[in-house]
Amino acid sequence: MKFLVDGMLGSLARWLRMMGHDVEFPAILDDDKLMALSKKENRILLTRDLELYKRSAAHGINVFYVEGKTEAERLEALAKRFGIALEIDLRFSRCPKCNTMIQSVPKTKIVDKVEENTFAHYDEFWECPNCGKVYWQGAHWPKIRQTLEEARKRVNESSDV
């Protein structure tokens, strides 16, 4: 599945990319260009704009209106609608910044690219071959895991009803 998100869903785009999905996020395209790009590249358009949703649906575009106040609620909705696995496997993750597949890199290769403290405390790193951004499972990972766990719990609770 390939996605296209509107300007209101930048955070969701990053989450989907981390989970390995191909997500385009052209933050400054108008509605007509978003619809054209969705159709041209056969991407599911994700939006929080009700008017864009209605116009896209009327034009036969595969569109999903994303509701939810929290990231966990939005991820839950996508998991239910598209069967998305709510997990991050870094072997398949994409760069949250530019959408390119990230690659595991030896620690020695990134010595000059991260803070000395980060280098000293972490052993596994991934790098984007396109934009050069370096990633590691730092202090933010418990929050990432918590959000995914909350989304999975919400999916499971709603399927039990």
In words, what does this structure look like?
This protein is an alpha/beta fold. It has two domains: 2-82, Rossmann fold (3-Layer(aba) Sandwich), CATH 3.40.50; 94-136, no CATH class. Helices cover 40% and strands 14% of the residues. It has six helices and seven strands, in the order E-H-E-H-E-H-E-H-E-H-E-E-H. The chain has helices at 10-18, 31-40, 50-58, 71-82, 116-121, 141-159; strands at 2-5, 22-24, 44-47, 63-65, 103-105, 125-127, 134-135. The strands form two sheets. Strands 2-1-3-4 form a four-stranded parallel β-sheet, with helices on both faces. Helix 3 links the parallel strand 3 and strand 4 (63-65). Helix 4 (71-82) crosses helix 6 (141-159). The longest helix is centred in the C-terminal third of the chain and has 19 residues, at 141-159. The radius of gyration is 17 Å and the shape is globular. The mean pLDDT is 95.
Lay out the secondary structure.
Layout: E1 2-5, H1 10-18, E2 22-24, H2 31-40, E3 44-47, H3 50-58, E4 63-65, H4 71-82, E5 103-105, H5 116-121, E6 125-127, E7 134-135, H6 141-159
Parallel strand pairs: 1-2, 1-3, 3-4
Antiparallel strand pairs: 5-6, 6-7
Helix pairs in contact: 4-6
Helix tally? 6
Mean pLDDT: 95
Please state how the strands of the largest beta sheet are arranged side by side.
2-1-3-4
The first-to-last residue Cα distance is 28 Å
CATH-assigned fold name of the largest domain: Rossmann fold
Number of separate domains: 2
Rg from alpha-carbon coordinates: 17 Å
Supply the helix-strand structural class: alpha/beta
